[in-house]
Specification:
Layout lengths: L13 E3 L4 E5 L12 E5 L4 E4 L6 H11 L4 E6 L10 H8 L3 E3 L24 E2 L5 E4 L2 E7 L8 E5 L4 E5 L17 H12 L5 E4 L8 H26 L2 E2 H8 L8 H17 L3 E3 L4 E4 L1
Parallel strand pairs: 4-5, 5-6, 6-7, 11-12
Antiparallel strand pairs: 1-2, 2-3, 3-4, 8-9, 9-10, 10-11, 13-15, 14-15
Helix pairs in contact: 3-4, 5-6
Length: 291
């Protein structure tokens, strides 16, 4: 697995990864973004820019260098966390391209990820519904609605290459954080099943390496979530009514403690899903128990 200092993933450089897809890595590595947010340029003669990334002058300059004067037909955002969409408006102002893609979302996120708070400045010129397309010379991008990580999350299928640009729904290095109130585990699992039912040949995630056996990865991620749900149920069976930090301390042994607050958000998402299915319930003092 690559690291933040991998010479094959230099920050700011355009790396061509398929005949129609290039990638530029933003300078925002962290425990949550891995090596940083990967902005994708789709097309050769004219372009679509997917997930323009943070509003960072160095990154925007790198994108303009990679665009190299070519027409930009669309700037597309998979979702509106602040490491994905804030550069959309300055890049649109510089290129004249419309901002197209996910719906705006200004819900306050009470989770632990300051770098992933929602981008309140995002104002699309056109919202893409599921199955709607944007096209240029030799490329067609189709929106695939994948709520779960966020309620407004879209993936984009590159029809000509059988590729799927997956944003944060499926990443090449880690599972996504599902953080209520907007993140929803039931939606996430339904969206994962939707991807499992597709026949994409490769995934290009916003964080981490390309995925060349995507259905195997999706099956593994779904299995991981089901295993985590089972751990939660067994913990509550053994211990009775319990607080989420106690569950995290046992279930995430060996994980960097700095990631425990984010893990707690995913545990909460599992518990809310279990509540909706009549398996667990909150009892009013921050504890959860089986029904």
């Amino acid at each position: 697995m690559a690291t933040a200092h991998d010479p094959d993933m230099p920050t700011g450089a355009l790396r061509q990864i398929s005949p129609r897809v290039g990638r530029v890595l933003a300078p925002n590595p962290s425990h949550f973004t891995y090596t940083g947010t990967q902005t994708y340029l789709v097309g050769t003669t004219d372009l679509a820019v997917i997930d323009p990334g943070p509003d960072d002058a160095e990154h925007i300059a790198a994108l303009l260098s990679a665009i190299d004067g070519r027409p930009v037909r669309a700037i597309l955002c998979t979702h509106t966390h602040r490491d994905h969409s804030p550069a959309a408006r300055p890049l649109a102002d510089l290129t004249g391209a419309p901002i197209i893609g996910c719906a705006p979302l200004t819900l306050e996120d009470d989770g632990p990820r300051a770098d992933a708070a929602f981008d309140a400045t995002y104002q699309p010129d056109r919202i893409l519904g599921d199955g709607e397309q944007v096209a240029g010379e030799g490329w067609t991008l189709e929106a695939v609605a994948t709520p779960g990580h966020t309620s407004n999350h879209l993936c984009f299928a590159l029809v000509e290459e059988g590729a799927l640009l997956t944003g944060d729904h499926v990443m090449g290095w880690s599972t996504s954080v599902i953080s209520p109130p907007d993140g929803d585990m039931a939606d996430y699992m339904r969206s994962m099943q939707r991807l499992l039912d597709r026949e994409d040949a490769v995934y290009y995630p916003a964080h981490g390496d390309a995925v060349d056996n995507p259905r195997r990865l999706v099956r593994g991620m779904m299995g991981h979530r089901k295993q985590r749900e089972g751990q939660i149920v067994r913990f509550l069976e053994r211990n009775g009514a319990s607080h989420i930090p106690d569950m995290v301390a046992e279930m995430y042994k060996g994980v960097d403690p700095r990631l425990h607050p984010a893990a707690g958000r995913s545990v909460l998402a599992h518990l809310i899903d279990l509540d909706g299915r009549g398996i667990a319930a909150a009892i009013g003092d921050g504890r959860w128990q089986l029904r």
